[in-house]
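Subject: two folds for Thursday's group meeting

Dear M.,

Sorry for the delay on this. The cluster queue was jammed most of the week, so I only got both jobs back this morning. I'm pasting them in the order they finished. Each block is the input sequence followed by the predicted structure tokens. Could you check whether the formatting survives your parser before we put anything on slides? The first protein is the one we discussed after the seminar.
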Amino acid sequence: MRPPAFGLSARIVGLPPRAIARPTSPDRCREVPDAFLADPDEARRTAPRTAYLEIPETQRRYVLGDMDAEDGSLVAVAFGPGGTPPARGSNARVTEKEHGYAREYFAERDAWAARAPADEGIDGPGEPGLLALRNDFPVPVTVDGTRYPTVAHAYRALSTDDPERREIVRVAENPHQTARLGRESPRRRGRAGARTAVMLRLLRAEFEQHPDLPELLLSTGDRTILYDDIGSPSCWGRHEAGGRDWAGRLLEVVRAERCADRAGI
């Protein structure tokens, strides 16, 4: 099997700790789960829980640098099965299933880190690097005169022909919320057959509107781009459970088009 050149997973291309202006507690919080899971003992669960609670509440959601899974796995490890995270209320406890998923999440994250090359980013260590190629990265894109916060927002909004729902999706707080709102909106007829073309159009627009992005994409050379997603497998991601990696393949198409433009072909 040919090794991937770049896997666009949260772990591999997530913002390095030094690039995030936060207190030292998030850095500790990212390290503590690994130590606990290596020797899981209930008496040792205090460390990840304390580290998590030391982070200001407004900064907890993306402490792992994962815009898809957010802090769910960290919460499950920190509070354990039957635990009650403060944001959930007294009646919502961590389930055994959530805890099991969290263990798999950190194991998979570490496996990717072990076999993937370090991402220094196009501008050097400490920059977002290849994370900027993800559809949910906060790079706005304008389509038909409408500005969307991310490609993910645009894709979900354009999947419905209901103007009110489209606007609700467009202004969603984050890509995770956008996905949920998109699923709850009436689907545009013919959407399933056209979705790869829609995504390709959005990616082309994004790379045309942001001159720095083509250079970042071209820095990947001719290597395979694997768009990894810890969440549910889909046509876009390359999750081990059966994703089709269309996002990675479309990025390769845009990259080839940019190479052709540069060569005058």
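Second protein, same layout:
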Amino acid sequence: MPLGAPPTISGEPVLRLEPTSWSSLEGWAEDDHAAALRAFLCSCGPVLEAAAKGSGAGRTTPPEALLAVCRRVLATAGQSSIDGTAARQLFETEFVPHAVHHDGPAGLLTAYYEPVLDGSREKTGRFRIPVFRRPPDLVNMMEESERASAGQRLTHMRQTNCGLLPYPTRADIEQGMLAWQGLELLWLEDEVDTFFMHIQGSGRIRFPDGSLVRITYDGKNGHPYTSVGRYLIDAGLFPANEMSLDALKAWLKADPVRGRDAMWQNKSFVFFRELSGAEDGAPLGVLHIPLSDGRSLAVDTAYHAIGTPIFVTAPDLRHAGGGRTGFRRLMIAQDVGSAIRGPERGDLYFGSGPDAGALAGITKHGGSFTVLVAQERS
């Protein structure tokens, strides 16, 4: 089996990793290695904990060599501040860069962010769109970290007296299927903004008194994700060359009935929980890993283990700090997504608020991965 390749399902692309040199990695020397190391540290604890419990961190299990690096780095973290030079030396000592080769689609990068929205604890005339907490009858059919590989299979189902049944669709839920069960976590103002918060998987909610809370993904109704933008393009309802997050939002809001019908094409519906205490410091990725602005990467765990450092190269992605030479940055695999499928399919986390949203909304660029493989030590 090729180095680094997990067991594959018939028809899936096959991954092959080929060792390369640091000197051949354009943009490596100029990167902020200290920022990458801080992000790497955020995932080490959760990855080690999951490995100790034998719980799933995705279809690709973190190799023992990566776990060993995490143990060594965590043992020394905090003893002294690590500057960029020391961080770069650590990565170059502990890892070997490997170019990614596969027979699947060309690499594609998109991006996501944490929206900041006005909301209320109570339903009012202004705030009337419910955000639901996870229902008690919701059953995971697979690990959350594996849901990208589900295809058209249901990732979650509903436990009933008659056994497991499909959960109501987005259209069903928004037409009242979960009403009167006390599942409303809070209330938002706009159904389109709420829809896109579902897609992002987290949100920061600002209450009328100015206080803020952070909510995060806590399961979904199990139905496959459908891109509404792709649906509109394929149906001839929206020109592909004009598609962006802002343009799509404007189209959906211009005619509420038309917009609702389009959003209902995506049967997937997300449930949330409120973060508190130490968890409230950042949005959470898979395994409850705190996400790092511009450093966290959602990947397909059929090919890449959570916690893996991946150097992402996208020469044409210049709007997100890439400048003239494009985007060249060490990211850490810390999240998954239902639409993130393939060996070089990545979703870049850009941070919180409207500026991050503006960057994420225009990100859809070709890209490539160089995977940092932890060195075995005798």
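Two things I noticed about the second structure. The chain has nine helices and 18 strands. Residues 214 and 277 are 11 Å apart (CA to CA).

Cheers,
T.
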